[in-house]
Specification:
heterodimer; A: alpha+beta; 5-stranded antiparallel beta sheet; 4 helices; 6 strands; about 30% helix; about 20% strand; B: mainly alpha; 2 domains; two-stranded antiparallel ribbon; two-stranded antiparallel sheet; 23 helices; about 80% helix; disordered C terminus
Chain lengths: ~150, ~575
Amino acid sequence: MPEFQRRYLNARPSLNTSVQSQTVPSQSVPPHVMRSRRRIRPPDLLDAVRAIDTTVDSAGQQALINYLHQQYEAMQVGMLIGLFSHCYLGQPYVDHRVDLAGSILEHYTATDHLPPQFDSARPLARTNAYLYIEVYQDGHVIPVRHDGTTAN
Amino acid sequence: MAEATDLSGVYRAIRVLGQQLGTQIDEVGASVGVVHHDLALTSDELKRLREEFNEFVMQAEKTANVQQSETRVVALKAEMDRQFGHYAVVRRTSTGILQAFDVGNVSNQVVTQVSEELMIQTPRYWLAPVLVALAAWSRDDQDMAEKSVREAYSRDPSKTSLLFTLVLRRQGRAEAATRWLQHYLTSLDPRALGREFAVVLEAVSYDAFGVHGQQILIHKMHEWAKVLGTGSDSFEHQARNWVGEIGMQREQLVDHEYPQLARLAPEWPTIKRLLEQASALPVTIDKYTEVANHVGMMPASLEDLMDDILDQLVTEYDKDELPLRRDVLYHSSVIEMGGDKVQARKRADQLGVALDASMDLMSMQTQAATNPELIGVSARTQRVCVGACHDAFRVAVGRFCTAYRSRLMDSTTLDFSPTHSQYAETYGFKGCRLDTAMNEQTGIGLLKQTWEDTFHDYIESVSFKDQWYTAPVSIAVVVTVVAFFIAWPAGIIVALAGTLIVAYLAKQKKDQCQAEVDKAEQARDAAMRLSLQMYRDSTAQFVDAMSLYRELDSQEADLLRLIDTWPTRDQQDEQEAI
């Protein structure tokens, strides 16, 4: 087990402890929208996101994307650009993006360049702590855990 | 020819005149110097005089300030005595009656008479009807007690309910005390809680008012939190404080645990930071599990503290008196600071804070939850407060983890620089960048190839080259030609000797070069082996580091579970939310 040590006399590390989160919105978001974004995502929606990788026919995928689009509209969470998550299709794909407005599902390899808004979501898709990551027009990036709770 | 005129007398006279003039000019110069000196002296004296005068004026002003303040303090105290002097009588009487209740040596009749007189003499003061109520209570006059309590409550709901909460608890009437506790909590403003609230919080957390009392307080704190608003600035502030608190639990990773990775990976600082940040999760779990499981008996000092609050409630100044009290404090400070009004204002402001120290609920909760010692509450109260602000704690955990996870990498570069080993420095390694995501055989192949290239070039550079002959042969030819010019037999001898010397030196140089080549050939394998070992070690260390990271990082779920199952969470509130 690697060795961790407290500094002398139990003093705290002097490094800056403030967290420069990349998930903070660049524009102000109304409080009621923020509250909606913090709510637990319903199980049906989570199942739909999980099914994206396992649904092979394009009609089925389209139906899932439409369903997600409707669900998010009903939740009133503001302008959602898309969902980003780890891709389980295997090599060479590592992650994928679901564009809800354009009904597009796009898989990416590790060397592919993403649309700039999704850059900060990519490292988060590497961890298996989140089922997927929501990327909003206002710059807010919200990781959603497997149980539907949000980490923002 | 004209007769020569003797001008020597004139010259002498002019010289004397010049000397006299010089002397006089010197004298005038000296006089000017003296005058200048005198003037400077006068100027200095004037300056000093002005300083002394200013000082005198300032001192006089200060003395006048002190005198004015002394007069003002007397006047203010007289005013206070005139306006609120009778309050002091009520305070003294209240303390006396409470003590008499404890001892039980005063008749109800006397208590009733004294309290009713004070009621008439001190209109508007909350404590007077409280005394009447206590007297009525002691003689079982329910009607009178209720009337008086209503009056006291309308005059100052917060103080009246806190006083009855404490008095009834002292008398062992738990149920009634809890009811009054509820009234007390209802009367509070969550934006400005007094210092006494921290003590009440502490008492409630020790079940001083029973389990029901604790539930009432927890529920009220949740209600206040809702009023202050989730998503509001204060919630954000609370969440930020929690992020800071989790960040404080980070441990420090010692570099020598991953020596090769630390040496070769340019991203090592990020990897190290990831591990350190993630290490905060188990430490936070340990810290707060201990808080959650804390069971402690109510310390005896808490009983004393509650008595102190009761004493303070009875004896402290009423808010009507505060403006006058502040004036008195300021003027007393002026006297204390010798008439310096600026210093006096600072002192009065500092002391004034203590007169109405208050804190908003969110700050008090967060302080009690993260730094209980700062506001002097125990682990038990900390436990209640963590439960009260679990929303902010939960949000903070999410943000803290998201922040460091946003720097997570799949693989790292391994930079085999020209200085990565002693061999690399000696043989001028060409440099090679590998990646931990690379197939191991590909990595090994690249590293070997770079070493091969390096040694090829090195051997090439140290091998014997025919160009070496140019310099010694040229010298030998020049010397031989010179010898031929001197005498041809000497030329022949020098030519032979030169050939032998050049051949000998070439042999020596060839041997030396061959030794270098042999040495390099021998080192080639060792150098390659060392770099390959470093490559394998650093790859393995990266795998280890990431495995440890995942183990630490996965504890977010445990920390969230701890928060979600916190023992003092408001279950009633949760049900309402569902």
